Structures
1.
Amino acid sequence: METKLLPADDAGIALACTLLRRGELVGIPTETVYGLAANALDPEAAARIYAAKGRPSDNPLIVHIAELSALDQLAAERPPLADKLAAAFWPGPLTMIFKKSENVPDATTGGLNTVAVRMPAHPAALRLIRESGLPLAAPSANLSGRPSPTRAAHVLHDMDGRIPLILDGGDCTVGVESTVISVGENGVRLLRPGGITVEALSRHCRVTVDDGVLHQLKEGQKALSPGMKYKHYAPAARVILLDGDEAAFAAYVNAHAGDGVFAMAGQKEAAALRVPALPFGDEGEEAAQAQRLFDCLRECDEQGARTVYVRLPRREGVGLAVLNRLLRAAAFQVVPLKEGSDEAER
Ligand code: TXA
Ligand code: MG
């Protein structure tokens, strides 16, 4: 199959609508990461998503809507808190999980009796949902296990020959996927940290961070968000997370410099490094780190990196999402560094 790459303009959106109504797949921009979209109410279209991604069929998809009223046909019930959060954060990178209505096929929800829904903030995504008249199921548009795509070129890299169309809507501004929560009467449970931060949610309700966010699930422990149990976001290179200050980080990385050794670092950190640094963000620049994260992980492969060192990000704000993704890319291995460069050098 030939894969077209078109700008997300009038002509691109018109072709995308035609394809989506026919049950085909389209790579679409959102503010978080690019999505691989299909008609969420068509089980065959949903099945095509799993095939194109090579995704395990028990890992459910997120359904994207453009008006709050579209929730009525998807969710069997919703707590009043959900409406409050929708008013505060939609359109935006917040996904809420509801008991599903019978309109939503099992193929879309990976067999679960719940459905995940969000209203994306990218104008092209909203236009596409409105003009196609369809709720769009869309996981991140990467091959299963690969870093999520934050540029149209990333989608083309993974999906060339597998889907008929990719719409280019520019680089994603958030860069990590949406925050996934389940909503109770008085509070929410955070299943995947993302663009909407714990701090922001906490201004509206009680927030419980699920164990799986920062810890590897133990044998037999059930993942509330099935996607969290799979190996994720990993480049071919070994990602090594270092926990220490800037000086200790530089000393450790420089002591391990060599062929195929890279770092992901902000401008300030990179200045002290004797290995090639992929432009990330410095400490305190969590939004920049999030925006750059997946492009860096993909760049590791492009540049043939064998090892890539990254300093453990702070947990504040969207830093929690960056940390969650990096822990998975690094298979939860973190090397603690003693503060001060001479200790780490030995
Ligand atoms: O920002 C995003 O959310 C992007 C863009 C394209 O919107 N989409 C995305 O989809 O990240 P995906 O499929 O890569 O991740 C969806 C996550 C998975 O971890 C999945 O397990 C979880 O949401 N999820 C989906 N439906 C669920 C449900 N009914 N219950 C629990 N978790 C669910
Ligand atoms: Mg994904």
2.
Amino acid sequence: MARPQTIDGKIDIKSLSLSELTELLVEQGHPKFRARQVYKWVWNKGVTSFHDMTNVSKTARKQLDEAFVIDFLEPAMQLDSADGTKKFVWELRDESHIESVLIPDPGIPGHSKPRMTLCMSSQVGCAMACSFCLTGDLGFKRNLRVAEILNQALQVQQSLPEGERITNLVFMGMGEPLHNITNLIRSLEVLLDESALNFSHRKITVSTVGLVPQMARLAAATPVNLAVSLNATTNESRSQVMPITRRYPLSQLMDGCRDFPLPHAKRITFEYVMMAGFNDSWDDAARLVKLMSGVKSKVNLIPYNENPQREILRPSEDHVKAFQHFLVKRGVQTSIRTTRGIDISAACGQLGKATQGMRIEEAGIEGPTISLD
Ligand code: SAH
């Protein structure tokens, strides 16, 4: 077993898989069934104290309390958009902040089912420095621990009225999930575990700027959906806005996508943020068609969300539709992402804005010591 993550010298129980917890508890003299019992309290009931585990003996509860911590996120702010989108700002133990966005979609009768999608963060800030993205302005602070990733799903689910459930999870919030791959993979394991959060891999999407070796590592670990933020069609233009292109040029990225093992009927989503005069010409559209050849793909056009910090403009709706039409006519499955939560800075690329005005600090503050693997 890898060294478990600890908080203040105690083991962070939410960083463990069920088999790891079983191993640890048996080592500590508990009966084997105890692990599943405790795991259910933590993940199904969402308790934050061992004292609430009423079917566990008092002595065992005390032992558990001495050895483990049940970590949770402090809600710092919640913002409600006129369109039903909700942004959750969380304060972490080191007083840094992250955001999650809940996006309800009523669906279209006879066409698409209602959905409740949670957009989750994977890091405090981001190291990828994509020039158009506001989260990049924060710089990179640190990776989220497993519990910090998972608690976003658990605590948002707990905040919902009886009968409402999160249906889909997307790692499209703050940070580059594949830059925090060890904790991401462990989190996915718990999200998929039926005795824990019990999501289907079909309903989870991990989005990346295109860290090619980590894409292969993710695929080897779990069959979740992959989304790649493409955003440009030549190495020259992509390098201008996404520095990662200098490490993994488009040819290498597309090879990595072609090699990505996809279960039957799955496709990789290519996100393409449309920026007027930068990547929305007909030459771009033609190059995009070429890039997609031989890849089981769908393109998701995201009209740029304008903001006062950048001079980048969103193309007109007509132009975005015409661009989509061009791709579809040439056999590329293409959709347009609806903008949600713009009034509360919860839309794509806007995360971090609300927290920027707040104090974001990293080290040197009093508080629990947190060990990262
Ligand atoms: N780092 C990962 C996960 C973040 S996803 C990744 O880049 O894929 C966030 C998505 O929002 C990315 O596709 C990014 O290209 C897009 N984005 C960033 N700023 C945006 C903006 N202002 N308008 C629309 N989309 C934006």
